[in-house]
Amino acid sequence: MSARKPLTAATADRHWLYENSVQNVDWETGFLDRAYRRVFRRPASFLREDFCGTAALSCAWVQKSARHVALGVDLHGPTLAWGRRHNVSPLGAASLRVRLVQDDVRHVRRPRADILAATNFSWWTFKTHTDLLAYLRNCYRSLRDDGMLALDIYGGPEAQVTQQEERRCAGFSYFWDQAAFNPITHAYRCHIHFAFPDGTALRRAFSYDWRLWSVPEVRELLQAAGFAETAVYWEGTDRNGRPSGIFRPGTLGDAAPAWVAYVIAYRRG
Ligand SMILES: C[S@@+](CC[C@H](N)C(=O)[O-])C[C@H]1O[C@@H](n2cnc3c(N)ncnc32)[C@H](O)[C@@H]1O
Prior knowledge:
25% of the residues lie in helices and 36% in strands. It has six helices and twelve strands.
């Protein structure tokens, strides 16, 4: 889709809008590559992307190196079909190194991956300890020895309030809507809306029914799932105190009103 024609609710494609407002897959593949090398002292080749949606991360991964292969797993056939058409096919020969599977992430175990990534908080779809633990156990079994699981997470007091945040993107506005949060259960309802210069909007282009998990909770469940070692990659700040986009393993996070981090778990050989 060209960003040159003014976008409107009638012409815009919600997957294109999502990829161009939420995801930064070039950065993320670099981050995963570096985090893997840092611990295992060799490059990873096989990435599995759980909850892959349009498989943008898988496609960026295979474009990074001719040694890279990727497997994307998602339940939703139409979203996978969009990804095949708009992301996989344009890769040409490299498309042969991406495979997409329509299945529940808890049911896929083979082939075993070097890196398993579940990004944009998708693993929050599992709302009980039992369900999240079952998923994490499956992740452990899906990794090679010397394998790494990467889960992103966000939090801070601002995560627990109902609020809507607008961000301007090229040709449209993105809205993150924290519509409901229940402090008793941590049930969390969020939506993404898009608005266009002509005044039209795509309300609830995406909706999420999640549990807001915390870092210590997921680390404890990772340990119970077999991951003896976990790390938290916390984002640093620049000299003005703003998030720097540089994530490093650490044990002391700053009590920011809102933060994003990665919880990384290692399966050692
Ligand atoms: C928030 S989107 C994530 C898209 C993409 N991974 C990203 O990083 O932005 C969540 C995706 O998870 C998929 N999904 C939800 N539950 C699933 C499950 N149990 N197994 C496989 N896919 C699932 C949905 O179909 C949806 O495409």
